Please model this.
Amino acid sequence: MKPIKVFFDRVGNTLNVWFDDPEKEHVSEETSEEVVLVKDKDGKVIGFEVLNYLSANEARDVTVVPVEAAVI
Model:
């Protein structure tokens, strides 16, 4: 199993989550919920981007990104 990569862009206020190599990104598809699905050339979802992840005040002052993870 490949590790999941999580990146927070403070300037863009986006959270990016990758299930595969970001270099494989071929096309992006925005959903109606401020989430962008990132797909490879075969149409497989390899990651997603959450737009406006934090409020403006939270994004400006953040030092730790609030992400919860669990194995179930």
